[in-house]
Amino acid sequence: MADAVDLALAQWSVQRPDVDTAPMAVLARVTRLARLARLLERELRDFAGRFDLEPGEFDVLTALRRAGPGLGLTAGALLSASLVTAGAITNRIDRMAAKGLVRRVPDAADRRVVRIELTERGARLVDGMPAEHMGWYARLLEPLDAGTRAVVADALRTLLEQCE
Fold this sequence. Notes:
Structural class: mainly alpha
Number of helices: 8
Strand order of the largest sheet: 1-3-2
Number of strands: 3
Largest sheet: 3 strands, antiparallel
């Protein structure tokens, strides 16, 4: 199935056969992924909104859940996982604490450190979300078999590591 990038490559091969356009086959599609990213962001906003959450709050809840029950994370660890400013993390934590989803707990080993933990309410909420969320991801990727998904994931990881 041909797309707009294939058309551009075919046109360049006629107009400038002396130019190697192979990189364009990948990178032009990467730039088109911005459209897919906007779709994903809109869907995540809608999904999180059904639970009275902002997407950033969803990210915090899922990061805390992945850390394991009772372990919590420091604000710094949440900051590293989210690629936002320290102020944004603090605001997210404040909003989520006001909703009763997280609490701040002094670290048992170092009382200068504060860990963010899920409350029972937060844990119940986040435990109901991943299956539906991952199901939506799976539906988006249905055109790709498991092997192709793995190749794409590896290639994107490599490209992102090189660019970042």
